[in-house]
Every structure is written in structure tokens, then in C-alpha cells.
Amino acid sequence: MNLVIWQTIYVLGGIALLPFAPFLYLQGKYVRRKIGRLPDASGEKKGKSGAEKETVKLLVIGESTAAGVGARTHETGLAGHFSRFLSAKIGKTIEWQVVSRSGITIAETIRELVPKIPDEKFDYILLALCGNEVLKLRSPRKSRRDMLKLIEILEAKNENATFFITNAPAVRLSPILPFPIKEILGNLSAIHDKNAQEFTAEMPHVFYFNQPTYVPEDFFADGIHPSEKGYEIWSKRMIEFFGEKYNW
Q1: Which member of 16, 46, 209, 210 has the lowest number of beta carbons within 10 Å of its beta carbon?
Q2: Using CB atoms within 10 A of its CB, is residue 133 exposed (0-12), middle (13-18) or buried (19+)?
């Protein structure tokens, strides 16, 4: 299992970076001040996409991208765009709902967001949760364990649901992150990307979107989060990717 290798790289990398920790901490604070903080998307956290006779339900749960940071409303954020492309793909009306908190990890999602999920059955679940596993330097072993636990919990409440997992953040594509933080987080993100590809490969009804290698210039709102155009591009690519790779 490659997880042992990735975990070893993670541990050794952490040890190697210890002497530079003060500098990286200060650089991180500078970047956060430079970027600032965009608000979550406003408006209703639920909506409908499509006008087909048959209706299915989509839950969007997770961190800042699920919260629509970088978009004015959820209709123009991840939930709205993803549901529209999903509706067109499957030929059904999508009723979507968002349960989110910016900055949340997978473990925190289990504790804080799962209890807030509406008491109803969802046919599709979009997990937008890989970003803070990287930004908060979570290990691949812990991230895998937490994600599998979360999926298990949600599967028990939503039998036969199809799961989509957004990609580990493409840190190397950020136009605002400086060296060496971009390189360090980029390497960690690549490990999380490979980790997610591996543990979802044999899971029926669980689809992971591989980390992209290119995004257009207008993809980002602040150099980190997608813009409204970015959410549209990202959602379209995800639905196309899932359909092509998994013959879905």
C-alpha cells in the first residue's frame, strides 16, 4: 500500500522543515494578510436545478468551496453550478442543499457538520473537503481515516447514494502563493491527491476528481478560492471527468 510511503514522506518532510518553521509561519501570516478574507456566498443554502419530471437530491457539504467563498450566492458558487451540470448529465431535476463552514477539516466535519445535515435521504453527496487537509498540514493517514469514516457515516444514512469528492487543491496553480510555501504545500497536496485516488479506486459509488494541472487566468477570485467563473469551469470539468473515467 502506497499510504506507508506517503506517510513516511510526510513525516520526513516535516522533520526537514522544522528549522525553517519560524520563517514559514511569518510568510504564512503575510500571505493571509495579503489575500484577506472573502465572505461565504450569501442567500439561500438550498435550491433547484433543472425542470425534469424526476427529482433527486444533492447534498453539498464541506469547507470554503462548499460555502461558496468567491461567489456572490450559492447559485453562482459550487452548489449551483455543480447541480446544473449534474442535472444536464443525468436528465433529472436536482434539489440541492449546502451544509458548510469555511476552514473546516474532515474530522471537524464529522463532529460539527454531520449533525446539521437535514433529516432526509440524499441521492448524491458532494464532499468539498480536501483543501484544509493540505493547508492545515494533515497527514495522509489521518485524512484517509477521517474521509473513510465520514463516508461510512453518510452511507448509513443515505443508502445507495453516489459520492463525489472534490480534488486536493491545486496549490501550484495559485498565482499568489510565494516560494517556498507554494512548493511545500504543493508537494503535500500532490500526496493527498494520490492518496485519495488510491483509496477511492475500489469504492463503488465514490468518485474522486483528480487534481487539475491547468486552470484559466480568471479561475481564481483571490488567488486561492474560485471565482464564479472558476466554480462554473470546475463543476463542468468534474462532471465531465466523472462521466468519462467511470462510464457514468
Answers
A1: 16
A2: buried
Sign of CA dihedral 84, 86, 89, 93: negative
Q: Is the dihedral of CA 129, 205, 110, 98 positive or negative?
A: positive
pLDDT tens for each residue of 96-148:
999 999 999 999 999 999 999 999 999 999 999 999 999 999 999 999 999 99
DSSP letter for each residue of 134-158: HHTT--HHHHHHHHHHHHHHHHHHS
CA 12 to CA 188: how far, in whole Å?
A: 12
Cβ atoms of 165 and 200 closer than 8 Å = yes
Cβ contacts of 185 within 8 Å, gap of 6 or more: 134, 135, 171, 177
Report the C-alpha gap between 90 and 240 in whole angstroms. Answer: 12
Q: Of 196, 140, 146, 198, nearest to 168 (Cα)?
A: 196
**Residue 90 corresponds to which cell in the numbers above?**
443525468
Here the cell at position 39 is 465572505
- Beta strands at 124-128 and 55-62: parallel, antiparallel or unpaired: parallel
Residue with cell 492518496: 195
